[in-house]
Amino acid sequence: MTVCSTSDPLAVFPPEIVLRILEFSSVTTLAALTVSSKAWHQFIDLTHQEAIYSSKYKALQSSRCLRGSSSSPADTHTYSRLFEKTESWKDVCKRQTLLASNWADRRPMTQESVLQIGNDPVWRFRPDFKRRFFVSSSHAGGLNVTDMDTGRILWRLPSSLDTDGDSVRPYAHLEYQDGMVVFDREGDSVEVWQADQEGAARGEFRRIAILNHECQTRGFQLSYWTLCVVSSQGHGFVYDMTQRPPTMTTHINIEKGAIGHLDQSEDAVIYSIGQKGYYAYNKSTGEFLGVLQPSQGTDKYHILPPTASSPSATAALAGAARHGSSHRPFPPGPPRRDSLVPLDVHSGPLPSSEHTWEGENEWGAGMLDGDLFVGFSRSGSVFVCSDWRKAIRDQAGLVANSSLIECKSDGSSFDLGGWLSVQNHHVMFEIQDRIYVVALDDRNRIQNVKSPPRASYSLLTSSAPQLAVPVSFMTLCDDAIMTTYTTLGWRQSLPNIPGNVAQHENPARIFPTKAIRVISLAPDPIGVTKDSGSSETPQTSTGDDAFDLNAQDRPPADDMWRSQAGLLQLLSMLGDEFGEEEDDEELQAMVTGLGEGEAELEWEDVDDEDEEEEEEEELNGHNETS
Q1: Which of 439, 401, 407 is nearest to 422 (CA)?
Q2: pTM here?
Q3: Secondary structure class of 421 (helix, strand, coil)
């Protein structure tokens, strides 16, 4: 049958054929069709809306290849609760499309939150969007469970420096999956704790196992309900975490020299062996699958450092101001488009004039996301392998499926930082005092550098240059970027919960600390959010309770007064930003204290000039690389 090119498909083809065609159409195409004619509007938005948009949502989910991808919007957990209160499958797809569009924007709309947890710097943290809390360890020891929406500590384990009972050592690495947390203890053991036990309060964990090893353990990783532990002495251990107690299922003989970084898929585990690259093994049989050697790749790109100037003292003041005592200590800031700096990826290797690294290159963190594998090196190079299974077969497979991104770095932050995150066609890593977020194409390859469909960008790791220290954890989420963030904190009065060590009240003290920074890219579902720019009064008309700032969330008057006094102290230290003489030696001493012991800046409380000084908290300053 011959069909005229101008014929309406709805009049020519049966509904089954039209529906099949629409399965391959984008959500934006569907939206365009609904306004093209009354017939298309009737067909898509009324008669077949549920079938079309539910199918489209499932297609979007399956194409992302994310761990724990859900089949229904009710099971999709986001920081912003973007998919709550949706009225239809069409509404779900609309929010998905707006979210993807914002991620792709060269200057995306964002809202920023900074959460200080207690009075100790955060070391590692993990978000749980289903239970709405953060689990975190600290430089000083201890484990905290903090409400994601209020910032209140729900439950904690004390530091091993404070008690001989159940406790967590300083600089403890932790892994987390759906109510189960694993952290290391002194020696070569890891502890396994579980939430949601009978009779337990929200956020309370109870220990279910201690896993001992007779060799030096360097790192561990939990996902797919499997715990993989690695030793530098040539041993790998695989545990089934669905069993009670957890049961070791495989002992793998691996290449010696593992540095502690590892990641896993459903059937394989990949270990970093430093200068030798990444070694892959089957989790069930222990079979050696092959090695990824990034240095053998030939396809090279590079990123030059952003030319934007260092943050002004105004940014530092804004960061410090967020920590004033209030009902919600970390309300999201106003929507704005200047939080992320656009980043360009260029073809070819890094120009020789930009190289600052000398010596042997060592490969550290490596992460999997479906077929994609990404590795990060001491020299600041990023190995992007779109299909790691093909790449381990032979040299031709490696060359055909991998690229190298070179960045200007002297390697100084690699041992303390060197973190990486990979999700949904994005790669995040740290270079010097910045975080880079590099977008990939739909096949997880480097995008066309001349016209990339998705934007890449960078952000600073601290609220002021004087405070910059390496990031100790970062993660890409569906709707947010989360990292540790060095800024100024306020001495907090901790809640009366088990595990707290008594402290003297002295809220009038500020000090450098590492908090959790959340940059939300969630779109406004009803489309009324206004961009505050960089200086306007905050606008918060988003229609979402999670973004609603009202009078009761602002600090009381006396806390506002304390904030201003503290900020004036900070302003004097950062006076060079305002054309005054530079005097940041005291602030630099405090920053050094993040690794060697805490030093604090005090200011006088005029209401009680004789108030006793709080005893300085001693931090264990040893460096831990997971």
Answers
A1: 439
A2: 0.81
A3: strand
